[in-house]
Structure formats: C-alpha cells, structure tokens
Specification:
- This protein is an all-alpha fold and 369 residues long.
- 74% of the residues lie in helices and 0% in strands.
- The chain contains 15 helices and no strands.
- The two termini are 25 Å apart.
Length: 369
C-alpha cells in the first residue's frame, strides 16, 4: 500500500473521530446547560455522576460492560444495514425474536448456551430476511416493513412465551404467570459462562459475552473491508445501479445485508437474556434496546470498530444517568443522548466542509506546481 493511500485512510478515520467528538462535546454541553437551568444546586453533582459513575467501582464498570454486549450488537445491526443504504429500524423486532428463540431452546429444549445463541442469530436472520426480500424484489420501503415486523415479532413472542411449555416461571412452581423462568432454575447450562469474571468484577452479570461481541465487531470489520463480499455490499450501498452494471447481484446483496443485520440483533437478544440476570416479561411495548442501536451506529459512522467505542460511551452515560436519580429524572439522559445524535448529524456537515476545503487547497497546490 502506498504512503499516499495510507494518508487518505488515516485522514478519513481522523475526520470520523473528529466529527464524533464534536457531537459528543456539544451534546454534553447542551445537557449540562439543562441541568443548571432546572436544578442549579444539584447540577455539578449530576454532571459528575453522569461522566464518572461508570469508573466509580468494579461493580459499576461491570454494569457498563453488561449493557455493552447487546447494545453493541444492535448498533452493528443498524450499521451493517446503513452500509448498504438500508435503514434497519427493525432491530427491536429482530432482537425480540432472537431472545424468544434463545429462551425456547434454553427452557423448552434444555439446550446449552452456545446452541441457544446460535439459534437466536438464525431467528434474527430469518426475521431480517423478509424486509430484505420485499425491498429487493418488490421495492417496498424497508422502514415500513421493519416497523410492521417489529410489532408482529413482539406479539408473536408474547404468544410463544405464553404457550410453549416450560418457559414461564409458573411452570416451575412460581405464582408468576407473565414472566419467563429464571435460567438458574429452568436450565443452568443455558447461562453464558462467567469464566471467573463475576468474581473479578464482583458482579453476577459479568460473563464472556463482552469478548463475543468484540470478536463479532472485528469480524464485521474484516468482512466489510477485507473481503469481496463486503466490497459488494458497500458497492450496492453507494450505487445499486452501478453495482448491477458491474455484474454484482444487487438484489441478493440487499437480502444478505438485512439477514446479517437481523442475525446481529437476534444474537444481541440472546446474549441479554442468557446472561441469567433477566427474564422476559410479556410486554405491550417494543423493547428499546433495538432502537438504542441507532445512535450507536450514527455516532460510529456505521464503522464496526467505531461501534465498540460508541457503545462503551453510551453505556457509560446510561449507568451515569441512573446515578443522577433522584435529583434528575431518567428522561434527562435520553435528552442528552438525543442532543448528541442531533449534533452528530450537524457534525457531518462540518466534516463535508473540511473535506471540500482540503480538496480546494490540494487543487490549488497542484495548479501552482
């Protein structure tokens, strides 16, 4: 690789990092101003809790890592679809269906954790396949089909959890009828191994899932940037007609992209519920984890490696936001995250201006030469 090419790549990474840091700084500043407006006496303590609680103890840091796993996979799900110019707003449904299948294999079939995770990914891929097929062969907007499938996935999960034997807590002697059984009671083998991390961090929620999701993120990076398949996916995203003219099967790649996105979100649902610390509660509202993947992907510019960093940052804010209570309501952290995402879009304009200015200078230097 030539030095000139290396410089361009480093410059692109630097621009992405710079624009993300701008959006983070402006969003945090906006949040700090709000805290001082509504509760000036508690604002300094609130800001301190927001930024530093995640580092305050091993238990708090473990909570950050625990939330990072499923959130990172949802961010990767949205980001991989973005790479092919598809807006996968269906991550909540894919996440929920993946969780459902993982719990069915864990509590009904008594499978071990690895099989349950694999089946969660397969279920998410199948759920992501449908909007991909509708987009590729009928040109139906992905946003419409994924929103519809989110609700179908939620209510299908509720039906399955209520009717498949061995899933509910009441099947194991508990009076609770609207919640799945604890894995420690129903099938301890389905709990993701702790590998000593629970003792190291003094937290029962810590397990090897953080290593699994980081490995998945690295694999996504390799696939996108080092393989022909990844090149074809991105080519379809940049210009589907041009990719078709070049001999790339753009319809198949649209379906593949949505299946990969669905598999990632489904795996995230499996990882969350197979940690052994949460049970599925029969819901009437969509699970928010899938939606949280959207800001993760936007902040990372849909880059898999960047997704690792953006997920850790948002997880830190989530844990810090919980520590701000009761002085500040939980909605404050949502407002701050929303502001960060808003400024992320604004920072993209700054990035474009920097690139345009750089090109003008380069062109001027070439003319002088």
């Amino acid at each position: 690789m030539s030095k000139k090419k290396q410089t361009k790549e480093i410059s692109a990474f630097g621009l992405n990092l710079y624009s993300s840091l701008i959006s983070i700084a402006m969003g945090l500043l906006f949040g700090a101003v709000l805290l001082f407006i509504f509760n000036p006496s508690k604002a300094p303590n609130g800001i301190s809790n927001l930024l530093f609680t995640g580092f305050a103890s091993k238990e708090k840091f473990a909570k950050v890592l625990y939330q990072t796993g499923p959130l990172m996979l949802c961010g990767l799900s949205v980001g991989m679809a973005f790479k092919t110019s598809l807006f996968n707003i269906g991550a909540p449904g894919q996440y929920t269906v993946g969780a459902m299948v993982a719990l069915i294999f864990a509590l009904h079939f008594k499978a071990n954790w690895a099989v349950c995770l694999l089946m969660a990914a397969v279920a998410g891929a199948v759920w992501g396949m449908f909007p991909g097929l509708f987009k590729a062969y009928f040109n139906v907007n992905v946003v419409i089909t994924t929103i519809m499938l989110n609700w179908i996935g939620l209510f299908l999960t509720n039906v399955m959890v209520s009717n498949v034997s061995g899933l509910l807590a009441c099947d194991y002697g508990s009076p609770i009828k609207n919640r799945t059984a604890a894995l420690a009671v129903g099938n301890p083998n389905a709990i993701i191994p702790h590998a000593g991390l629970d003792k190291l961090f003094n937290s029962g929620s810590m397990n090897i899932s953080i290593f699994i999701v980081i490995a998945v993120a690295i694999l996504c990076h390799i696939v996108l940037n080092k393989t022909t398949f990844g090149y074809e996916l991105k080519a379809c995203g940049f210009n589907a007609e041009g990719a078709k003219y070049a001999g790339i099967n753009e319809k198949a790649n649209i379906v593949y992209a949505m299946m990969i996105a669905g598999a990632l979100a489904g795996l995230g649902g499996g990882i969350y519920y197979l940690a052994g610390t949460a049970e599925y509660l029969i819901e009437k509202n969509l699970l928010t984890m899938g939606f949280d993947g959207i800001p993760v992907a936007l902040l990372a510019h849909s880059e898999p490696i960047g997704t690792i960093l953006s997920t850790l940052f948002i997880s830190f804010l989530r844990v810090g936001g919980q520590a701000m209570q009761p002085d500040f309501s939980p909605e404050y952290i949502d407002v701050i995250l929303s502001a960060i995402i808003y400024f992320a879009a604004f920072s993209l304009l700054i990035k474009e201006k920097i690139v345009a200015n750089h090109k003008r200078k380069a062109l001027g230097n070439e003319k002088e030469a």
